[in-house]
């Protein structure tokens, strides 16, 4: 009798599982936030994600894809109309044509698409566009990949999506019953800061960030033919796992463990985090990453596994050229191109050397400026030493001061463009720490004083 009861329980559990997976509609929003050929990885990982969701039978009309879409046919791309996510991998581009391209890829459009505001989208771009038209019984999945900074995710051209704006949109969707449950994967440097201390635990949203709130992501997959990094450890890990696992059995938590392991590479480590309603991590991936009635496990052939056992063959200026930090991609790319330039003309090699020297000069000047700025702002110290400000990794407690300081610095220092030079964003932590401990007037006066006195911004 007990055995019969146990078998019956298992049958009922299986029925409940199928009902849970099949109930409601599946919606997905995939965003590549970067443009330019050196940011190939952003469009490659997002293209792979889109292709994976389509292969898992989520209807095309239920997926919105946003990408600047300038990589596949960039003049530097030796294989036109082609995007791969690992060297030697299959061409993913033919099926992942974006719904929003070029100047339409902005934080404002993204938030309107996410919240299902068709009229708002039309007002912004002058045409009708697809949105996440989800309802109270539906499941929503969001994947975002680009560069990031403290409390921000970047869209093309260093345009910021702030953590408060993203979380306010999520709360709005909850109030308006736009989903039953939602899962977000956000991949960017310091992506944990998009949710840490701000995403509620009681609105049925579960989020994974590729890093904690104060560290960089990690690149992988240098392609010698294309001469760019075509993947990232976090992005490649979750898409490959989704392509090959049985989504009816594997849980969100199990995939989280997969990406944690993948991001623990030799010489470079990032720490994916979980936020929101953590009880959701016991649910199966099929609830969000497939449409159950059309899904078959283990039949996807569009992917290759990333080898995360690579040791650094060489480095430059302390940067691991196999697994560079995401914000070091411009320098790492230039260094690897120079190393592999033996077959190029002397003129081309000199151009590469000049480019690398310039990038290192910008990095050096940005660090020098930050030290001078901190010293000037602490002329009236309030308990913290310069080293505390320069090395601390505090959260943003004075957002008004921090945003004003960033804005003034960008206006005063066009030569240190943090969109073009993502490695310069590492110095933003000093701005956060200053604003947390010094009066805003002291911080702003220090920016004016240093940028004017030393002239290290305009000369670059």
Automatic annotation (TrEMBL):
CDD domains: legumain_C. Residues 1-23 form the signal peptide. The gene is LOC101849114. This is Legumain-like. InterPro entries: Legum_prodom, Legumain_prodom_sf, Peptidase_C13. The keyword Signal applies. The keyword Signal applies. Keywords: Signal. It comes from the Eukaryota. Belongs to the peptidase C13 family.
């Amino acid at each position: 009798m007990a055995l019969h009861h146990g078998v019956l329980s298992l049958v009922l559990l299986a029925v409940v599982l199928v009902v849970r997976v099949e109930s409601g509609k599946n919606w997905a929003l995939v965003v590549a936030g970067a443009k330019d050929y050196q940011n190939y990885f952003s469009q490659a990982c997002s293209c792979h994600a889109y292709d994976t969701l389509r292969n898992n039978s989520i209807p095309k009309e239920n997926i919105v894809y946003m990408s600047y879409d300038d990589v596949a046919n960039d003049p530097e791309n030796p294989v036109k109309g082609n995007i791969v996510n690992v060297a030697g991998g299959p061409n993913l581009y033919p099926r992942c044509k974006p719904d929003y391209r070029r100047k339409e890829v902005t934080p404002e459009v993204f938030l309107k698409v996410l919240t299902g505001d068709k009229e708002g989208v039309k007002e912004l771009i002058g045409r009708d566009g697809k949105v996440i038209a989800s309802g109270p019984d539906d499941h929503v999945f969001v994947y975002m990949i680009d560069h990031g900074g403290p409390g921000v995710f970047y869209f093309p051209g260093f345009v910021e999506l702030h953590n408060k704006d993203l979380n306010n949109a999520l709360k709005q969707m909850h109030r308006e019953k736009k989903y039953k449950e939602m899962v977000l994967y956000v991949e960017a440097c310091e992506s944990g800061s998009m949710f840490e201390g701000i995403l509620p635990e009681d609105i049925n949203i579960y989020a994974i960030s590729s890093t904690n709130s104060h560290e960089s992501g990690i690149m992988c997959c240098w392609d010698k033919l294309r001469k760019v990094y075509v993947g990232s450890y976090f992005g490649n890990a979750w898409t490959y796992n989704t392509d090959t696992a049985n989504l009816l059995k594997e849980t969100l938590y199990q995939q989280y463990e997969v990406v944690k392991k993948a991001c623990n590479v030799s010489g470079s480590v990032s720490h994916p985090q979980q936020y929101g309603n953590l009880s959701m991590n016991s649910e199966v991936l099929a609830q969000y990453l497939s449409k159950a009635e059309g899904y078959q496990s283990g039949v996807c052939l569009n992917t290759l596994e990333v080898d995360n056992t690579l040791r650094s063959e060489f480095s430059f200026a302390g940067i691991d050229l196999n697994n560079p930090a995401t914000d070091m991609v411009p320098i790492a790319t230039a260094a690897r191109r120079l190393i592999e330039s033996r077959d190029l003309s002397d003129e081309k090699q000199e151009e590469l050397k000049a480019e690398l020297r310039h990038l290192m000069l910008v990095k050096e000047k940005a660090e020098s400026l930050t030290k001078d700025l901190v010293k000037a702002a602490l002329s009236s110290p309030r308990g913290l030493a310069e080293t505390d400000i320069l090395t601390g990794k505090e959260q943003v407690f004075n957002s008004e001061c921090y945003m004003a300081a960033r804005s003034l610095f960008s206006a005063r220092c066009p030569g240190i463009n943090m969109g073009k030079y993502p490695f310069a964003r590492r110095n933003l932590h000093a701005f956060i720490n200053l604003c947390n401990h010094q009066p805003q007037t002291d911080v702003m006066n220090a920016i004016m004083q240093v940028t004017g006195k030393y002239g290290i911004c305009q000369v670059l």
